[in-house]
Amino acid sequence: VQLPQALQPTDAGVSKSSHRTGMTVEDLKQAFLDNLFYDQGKFPALATQHDYYMALAYAVRDRLLQRWNQTAATYTAEGSRTVAYFSAEFLMGPQLGKNLTSLGIYDRVRDAIASLDLDLDALLDEEPEPGLGNGGLGRLAACYLDSLATLEIPALGYGIRYEFGIFQQDLQDGWQVEKTDKWLRLGNPWEIKRPEWGVEVKFGGHTDSYLDQDGCYRVRWVPEQTVMGIPYDTPLLGYQTATANTLRLWTAEAPESFNFESFNSGDYLGAVYEKMISENISKVLYPNDDSAQGKRLRLTQQYFFVSCSLRDMLRILIGQELPLEKFHEKFAVQLNDTHPAIAVAELMRLLLDEHHLNWESAWSITQRTFAYTNHTLLPEALERWPIDLFGQLLPRHLDVIYEINHRFIDEVRIKFPGDEARLARLSLIDESGERYIRMAHLACVGSHTINGVAALHTELLKQDVLQDFYAMYPHKFQNKTNGVTPRRFMVLSNAKLTNLITEKIGDQWVKHLDQLQQLEAFADDPDFQNTWREIKLSCKRDLAVFIQQQTGIVVDPHSMFDILIKRFHEYKRQHLDVLHIITLYNRIKANPDIDITPRTFIFGGKAAPGYWMAKLIIKLINSVADVVNRDPDVRGRLKVVFMKNFNVKLAQRLYPAADLSEQISTAGKEASGTGNMKFALNGALTIGTLDGANVEIREQVGAENFFLFGLTTEQVYKMRAEGYCPQDYYQANPELRLALDRIASGFFSHGDTEVFKPLLDGLMNHDPYFLLADYQSYIDCQKEVGLAFKDTARWTRMSILNTARTGTFSSDRAIQEYCDDIWNIQPVKVAQPDDVPTAV
Ligand code: F58
């Protein structure tokens, strides 16, 4: 489709005056002042810091819009194949700094703002975190959107615009307390509401069948409830490209006509009540990061955003005058875990019932559309929905799933005749007790490709969790090791290291992260080492100031910053780190003059509000911190800090300042990890198990530059099979015993011997994550770490090599692999506006 000249986006009659699009310091300053006046309705004497932030955000958004419209026009004109990334979570992080980096105007804006006697950092701080995700899975989606735009791949992110994101974590007496996250309270300058593209979504009711005019037997869904899905779009600009893709998040609203009947019959409150129920759908993000409890509202959320998104894609397809049969040619849909897996049934329903395709055509389109990424090996995290609940909410989809299952089971019978046990294991319906729908099975059957997120994880999927699907469809399985965006986790958050690297090897590494390899040549250069060390120290000093502001704790920037940040879960073993701290503390108490490497232990992360043991581990960290930080015998050699409310903003302060990255999950439990990559990229050394992507990080950086400890997955499996007895380790190891006994004695809890009992009993009697089995290996390895840190030249060399050799963990590499091996999609060039600067 060729747009008429007058409608070309950059000439579409809009003002191109410099205050909207100009990129000089003077343009940016004027734009900021104009926005403050005309959009915020404020003048400097009355304006708050937040007004300044908003004015700047709108000024930057104007620059984005120019590229966004240009991108949309290009995609429309070219009818481009498009990736639709379906995810219940997008943990985007703050947008202002990121957009300044993408536009290449960070320094100019700093100057423009400074010329008004304002401080850019203070304005950046005003932006609330859009916390629309729990952890790794949601942040991965955000990194992938950044790479898609940077690689100039047409893409849409589809998800939910939660009114309340992940809760804010506070601490009271060392315990986690949750507060509602009102991130939208002061407005969100990055989004544009598009009510004209709202869609109706139905729920409940029943199905019936009828004969259409042609005498065809058809099924009709007679739903009970309707809600409106309203899209809000956020532009996502690639790094120094003109490509600005869209994140389209759906909000639930009551349909306008909705309350007439009740209203007319006088049931005003009833009508308002129903409106409230509709709006509940996109109210709040579920804060669990592992267990999938079968909650009706959660299934409602999933179906809501999936249905909205597929309908939106059909609108786009039809708008481009493409036939339905080309749906899978126009769109490649990636299912980010099983949360959007209901899309398989919904696309079938839309094609069958609303567009009257036959089953075979509809199924062929569906299977060629979807690909599924699995993110977990934990059985308790695999989503299943009780049939009754499912049938009440989505009766037509239940029929469709039964039919998919019926045909699938026939296929299995042909491939594995007479293997009834296999049929039961593979069935989309779990009939071992109460009947459930297994969403991973629906995703596997309905997708052309299934991928794990690290090499080890993919192998374990094939051998363990999804082994029957692997036997059925070996060709569907692929590995796609995760990656992280260097734009946010290096350029934006670690300007000092970014500048040093750019001085040495030029600026192309930001888009071609493999080029970091060129740093290897300087790993032993004393001048370079010195500068490298000074930068790390300077980042640590910045963090030390922040820690003191936040917690009142004074930490020594010369001590080793030993950091463990991630969601709290027993399998991630934060409490193993605590046992190390207590062991060092016990050694100091036994011998106050002992020579130990000074360390600052920094923790951060949230626990699911209902995950009691995880919350107890947070309490334990804070209790140990209280004792260790105050004890004069320690003489400041150990400090323990818990940074509350870990989020993307905080993460950006922590990675650059880390010496040691703790990646200590039980082997075989962490699918990949992505924090591990961010640390290594920023020159931290890893102490880790052979789990998730740690395995590949170690391969890349070299075994001699990685601190390995612990059981392997095979050893864990074997121990479990042979009967593991944690008590034996307790009995045999005096230091371990002393550490556990100190907790039990109430030493860290003002004499309270009850509070940590459940934790200790769990460890002594079950220890499902093999802490006691891995304890000694961890302690020994930490001793190596301590010694290595004292040898500054050696440590610095290792640090440089970690950065130099982790280029492969860029999300650009990961996305390129998805494009080539799964999506079969090519970049589309969007013309740059004339005035885009090119400097880093
Ligand atoms: C994480 N999963 C994996 N799930 O644990 C991690 O190893 C991996 O690096 C990351 O995905 C990216 O692949 C994860 O974050 C969740 O948060 C879900 C949220 C919704 C409920 C179920 C868990």
UniProtKB/TrEMBL annotation:
Keywords, in A-Z order: Carbohydrate metabolism, Glycogen metabolism, Glycosyltransferase, Pyridoxal phosphate, Transferase
Residue spans of biased composition, Polar residues class: 1-8
InterPro entries noted in UniProt: Glycg_phsphrylas, Glyco_trans_35, Pyridoxal_P_attach_site
UniProt entry tagged with the keyword Transferase: yes
Family: Belongs to the glycogen phosphorylase family.
Region (Disordered): 1-20
UniProt cross-references to PANTHER family, sorted A to Z: GLYCOGEN PHOSPHORYLASE, GLYCOGEN PHOSPHORYLASE, LIVER FORM
Any one annotated GO CC term: cytoplasm
A UniProt-annotated Pfam family: Phosphorylase
Name used for this protein in its record: Alpha-1,4 glucan phosphorylase
Molecular function, one GO term: glycogen phosphorylase activity
Name of encoding gene: malP_2
Modified residues (N6-(pyridoxal phosphate)lysine): K678
